[in-house]
C-alpha cells in the first residue's frame, strides 16, 4: 500500500512569502502495482510543476525492465524510459528531461500521475518513491506590487 506524505513549503507565512511549491510523496512497491501500473490522483485545478522518481529497490521481472511516468494523455510525458532506469537508486526529474510536461502542466480536470513498468515477465521485485511537485502560487497572503 502506498504511503502519501505531503511535504510543506520551507518558509514561514510571516516572512511574506506565500507562494512556495509543495510536494506529495508516494512510496510504493511492485505489489501495489496493478498490471505493472501505479497511479496517484491529481485534482482538477492543479498546476504540477515537476515529477520526480527514485527507485529504492530495483524492479525485476524476467529481463528488459524499464520505467516511465506519465498521465492519461501519455505514459511517458513526465519521464520517458530514457529518463529513468529500473535499477536501484536510479533517479529521474522531469525538469531535467525533454518530455512533453517538462515545463509543468495545468490539470483542468481530475487526472492521475501514472508510473508504468515494462518487463519480459511479471514483476517479482521493485520499489520506489514518486514525488509530485505542485505550484503553491496563490496559496499565501496577497503581496503588494512595489514600484521603485
Distance from first to last alpha carbon? 53 Å
Please report the first level of CATH classification, the CATH class: Mainly Beta
How many individual β-strands? 10
> How many separate structural domains?
1
Strand content: over 45%
**Which whole number gives the mean pLDDT?**
82
Largest sheet: 6 strands, antiparallel
- Low-pLDDT parts are 9-17, 138-148
CATH architecture: Sandwich
CATH topology type: Jelly Rolls
Percent of residues in helices comes to under 10%
Give the overall shape, derived from the CA principal axes.
elongated
The radius of gyration is: 17 Å
* Class per helix and strand makeup: mainly beta
**SSE ordering:** EEEEEEEEEE
Count of individual helical segments: 0
Describe this structure in words.
The protein has no helices and 10 strands. The protein is mainly β. It has one domain (3-11, 21-134): Jelly Rolls, CATH 2.60.120. Strands 1, 2, 4, 7, 8 and 10 form a 6-stranded antiparallel sheet that branches. It has a 4-stranded antiparallel sheet with strand order 3-9-5-6, with no helix packed on it. The model is unreliable at 9-17 and 138-148 (pLDDT under 50).
Descriptors:
mainly beta, Jelly Rolls, 6-stranded antiparallel β-sheet, disordered C terminus
Give a concise summary:
The chain has strands at residues 3-7, 22-29, 37-42, 46-60, 66-71, 74-79, 91-93, 105-107, 111-118, 125-134.
Amino acid at each position: 500500500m502506498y504511503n502519501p506524505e505531503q511535504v510543506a513549503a520551507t518558509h514561514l507565512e510571516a516572512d511574506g512569502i506565500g507562494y512556495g511549491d509543495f510536494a506529495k510523496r508516494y512510496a510504493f512497491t511492485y505489489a501495489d502495482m496493478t498490471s505493472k501500473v501505479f497511479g496517484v490522483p491529481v485534482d482538477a485545478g492543479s498546476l504540477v510543476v515537476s515529477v520526480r522518481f527514485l527507485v529504492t529497490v530495483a524492479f525485476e521481472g524476467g529481463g528488459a525492465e524499464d520505467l516511465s511516468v506519465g498521465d492519461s494523455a501519455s505514459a511517458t510525458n513526465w519521464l520517458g524510459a530514457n529518463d529513468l532506469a529500473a535499477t536501484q537508486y536510479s533517479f529521474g526529474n522531469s525538469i531535467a528531461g525533454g518530455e512533453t510536461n517538462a515545463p509543468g502542466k495545468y490539470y483542468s480536470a481530475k487526472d492521475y500521475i501514472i508510473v508504468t513498468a515494462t518487463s519480459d515477465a511479471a514483476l517479482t521485485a521493485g520499489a520506489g518513491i514518486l514525488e509530485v511537485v505542485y505550484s503553491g502560487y496563490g496559496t499565501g497572503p496577497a503581496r503588494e506590487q512595489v514600484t521603485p
